[in-house]
Design goal:
Length: 542
Amino acid sequence: MAAETETTPAREPGPGQVPVLVTRLGGQQRIFPVGAPVRVGRDPAFELVSVNPLVSRQCHGVITSDPDGATYVDQSRRGTFLDGRQLSGPLRITESVVLRLGDPATGEELGITPPLTSTQIARNHGRRVLGGRMRRGALAGVVVAAVAGLATFGVFALRPAAPANGPSASVLRHAEAATVKLVVGPVGSPGWGSGTVISPNGLILTNVHVAEPQAPGFAVASAEPGSQLEHDPPYLTVETTQGPSAPVVARYRARPVAADGYLDLALVQIYATASGQPVSPGSLHLPYLTVGNVSALQLDQHLTVLGFPGVSDSNSITVTSGVLSTFVPDPQKHVTDPRFELETTARVAHGNSGGAAITDAGQLIGVPSLSIPGEGSDLSWRLRSVAEARPLIAAAGAHNAYKSKILVQSASTESVTRIGVAATAEAACAGSPAAPASTSAVFGFGYTGFPVGLDVAFGVVMPDGTPVILDSTDGLPMTVTKTSSGCLSYALTAAALGAAATPAGTYQVQLFAGPNLDPVGPAAKLTVTAPTTNGSQTGAGN
């Protein structure tokens, strides 16, 4: 049977349009005409096909629809569950529901929205609320069916369901089971982060700085030379939760299969038990989360964050909640998506990195990555949009090598022709080795053989041995080349140092470039001289 997929906003029926049945299975939305039976199972011939081993290979269930709603009938041995309770007979559906196939906590999610208008669905939901019989998971993340011209298979109009007040108990239990602690190395190693299982065969999404800090691009993202980054761990120990108050238990080992340092995202694959015995990924059958649609998120939407922050002083899972407060574009402007980062009011702490941020429907929409200091005690908690991980997921799923196309790659032809210091960029680019102390010291780097768009960082160490770090990024000053040769300059101002003039003495300077911010040419020593009492200059030692 033919079906259409669409994610555009909903609208009420228009002339010539008829209602449709909307379903979601495995993260994919499907639309079917009213009256057509929809079979669910692992048989490729069915209308809705799952690869989850908890779903029956034969027909797990059948959905039928009519102008007044839809009906689901379970036909499996493992059962179908609504809010943790197994269906004992046909389920009549007059508002959006999320079912679990095969297990009340870890089964495949099946979302169903009946062929009613959004007004009718809202009215039905309101009746349940007023009557005190509302199902907690009834509106969790299934789109409200709108109408479309099925005769022409035109554009179908959908919109998100009304927001709930947090995930249902079964959705939260499932998300907890799919969130893991990742120890950096063997059991007992001091470093750790979090991760989210996104496939039953043990594929886990996490941060690069947890799994592979030497991945190309992470130096640029953190504005730190690659030589100063942490070493990659030999493997990650995967610890799983046994319940909301139980400590995690080491069960597996995993290693990276796709990583993008600039995005700070990595996919790791379970390959062995915690003791090192090989395991077949196909035999794991782990609970997992589906990737949600970030473009459908709305401000003030409720979010739940799961992970293992050290601040909680607990070895069991931690759950915090909040709302989506704003969308944050890429501060370095290499990624154009305006929803590059998601800011949330849900608390994120060290150890949460790589964990899960989910919608009330239990879909993964963000990866906790950063806390950004503000004024005073203000903190901004950031999630990396899960949309940025889709190319990595596609590569890992196809067993292809992943290579990021975000950053310009080094050409191995880069060289620095001269380095200087002066009060102006023009004089510094001429290669002056010394300059008098003033309100600013400009360091110039003549260069050639640089690809256009290459990331460049300025390494400047002051006479007292303090490196120059920007407060805004907690990293080195950076720029991007606009020409293949020329001069790049960085101005160190006295005002930024809280002084009347730049400190006198010997400065050590170095240019770094490329996705790994590798050094280009040797470091140089430049001198800023101090004025004497009669107005002449005194030399500073090298």
